[in-house]
Amino acid sequence: MIRCLTNPFRALLLTAALILIAALARPTGQARAASDSVTVVNPGPQTSSGDLTVTLDSSSALSAVTAHLADSSGTDVFDPALSETSSTTPASGVLQSVWNVATPIAEGAPPDGIPLGTYAISVNVSFSDGGSAASIAAGTLYFSAVPQVTISADHTDVSYADKHVTISGQATQVNPGGTVTPYQGPVYLGESWSLRQVEVNANADGDFSAVVAPGLVYGPDPSVSAQIDYGSPGEHANSNAVTFDVQVDNARVTASLSSPTIRYGAAETVSGTVSYQTAPGGSYSPAADEPFQVYVYSNEVTINGTTNAQGGYSVRLPDTAGASWTIQAGGDGLDLLLNAATATVGESVQIPTVITNFHTSLNQYWKLSFSGCLGLDETIPDAYGMPTANMRLQYALSPRGPWHTINGGYSFGSACGNDGSWFSGSTTAPDNYAYYRMYYPGFTGAATPTQPKYLSSASASSLAWKYDDRITGFSVSPHVVASNGWLTVKGQLQYYYRTWRDYADQTIYVIFRPEGGSTWYWIVKAKTNSSGHFSATFRDTVGSATWSAQFDGNATHLATGPAGVYVRVTG
């Protein structure tokens, strides 16, 4: 009985066990052979040299081995006879023999040879004692040419001025019969400085070329080599390596802004040149088509660009609240044939501010309350440090001014608007009918890349008013009175609307401030008649005091009161 385990790949040990039936049919009178076994130890994979070798372990000597090659369709296309080239008897007692084709397999058409391709191998064996076994799987024959490749460079000294190298190569293949012919197909150039492979194609003559630009990322000696993957699995050809001597030159960068100070959102460009030093200590020449970066760490912004044919560049900067921009050429990530060089420019930005939702209200006691929101004209993500001090409350008798600053305390509270803060405050109104606005002077210092200049702004005007009132003709009599004597207080209440007008049917409080005191008290109330006059007579029970009258005002009128009159009490 024969057993055979096969696999077409060379890394696996493929075995087969062969058990022969002991009593094979023989002519009458011949003895039956004892059971024999054979194992395929090393079926391949076979390669393209025209050779075919099979190593077998058997229980007894073999007298003949014939190979059979089947193409991809399973058709047996070639049956070369094998010759024993060696045999040994290991300690285990199993006989090991090596069998080779007597004549190398030729490339051609059967029965003289076979085309290049992949073939399944099987063998028939005959034992010396008369037994035999057929169709033992013995691996795979990869019948192909062996590639070869060489390369050369037009120069190996590389600098910024001479950074491109032409690599030329020749690819050939050694055919199974030993002839050498051009290889036509893909060739892969491996660049040590970029760890990448560049695919080129060899032409019908086996020639190929490519332009490379060596750098220095992975070590001081950049090199390039070629590889061809062809033939049996894992088989490839590697060329010689070409190593380059790289000179790193100095770079220089210049930069300037279209305007050192701009209003936020206005177009701003940075322009300049990139050049390189043609020789140590020598002059500088424009670096054409050179990559560069414009970046600012604080805002994590990076802009990539390439210089023009004269080494110049111009980049539109994004809107920002101000930054120190760095322009770099050369160095890691840009061009390793140039040392890194930078230039820095500081952009000072003016940021518009706005005061919105400004409101005022005037109560009857002349208290003016105001509030609003101080913020930015638009959302600016990187705006910072807006000062909020020195805002001024201003008034005018006309919505067009002129404006006059008045004292008005205020404080900031919750957030509002675009990065703004809500403010509120109060003060005594300077007039019964006036326009008010809030004025923000902005940041008055010099703008820098780290401190934007916040521009001044003013709110819309807000009108606050009530009718002005007065008590005229006020009198207290007598000015000297005995204790518990009678006093009479008189006056007339009027309000102003283009002229002074009588104010009827209003409550007047008669008030006094005791001598030596600071607090006013009311003692009686009086009502104005149709002409605005009022009068009240009462006993003086408070002693010497200053007397007056007060109108408390209302939703449309301001409070008012005349100057006080001193009354001395005797006895």
Architecture overview:
The structure is a single chain. By secondary structure, this protein is mainly β. The chain has 5 domains: 2-143, Immunoglobulin-like, CATH 2.60.40; 146-246, Immunoglobulins (Immunoglobulin-like); 251-344, Immunoglobulins (Immunoglobulin-like); 352-465, Immunoglobulin-like, CATH 2.60.40; 469-570, Sandwich (Immunoglobulin-like). It contains no helices and 50 strands. Strands 3, 4, 5, 6, 7, 8, 9 and 10 form an 8-stranded antiparallel β-sheet that branches. Strands 24, 27, 28, 30, 31 and 39 form a 6-stranded mixed β-sheet that branches. Strand 32 (353-362) and strand 33 form a beta hairpin. Residues 1-34 have low confidence and may be disordered.
Write the topology of this structure.
Blueprint: E1 2-4, E2 16-18, E3 38-42, E4 53-58, E5 62-70, E6 76-78, E7 81-88, E8 95-101, E9 117-127, E10 132-143, E11 146-153, E12 157-158, E13 165-174, E14 180-182, E15 185-191, E16 196-202, E17 207-212, E18 223-229, E19 236-238, E20 242-243, E21 245-246, E22 251-253, E23 256-257, E24 261-263, E25 269-277, E26 284-286, E27 291-296, E28 301-306, E29 312-316, E30 323-329, E31 341-351, E32 353-362, E33 367-376, E34 392-396, E35 404-406, E36 409-416, E37 418-428, E38 433-440, E39 453-454, E40 457-458, E41 462-465, E42 469-477, E43 480-482, E44 486-496, E45 500-502, E46 507-514, E47 521-527, E48 533-539, E49 545-550, E50 565-570
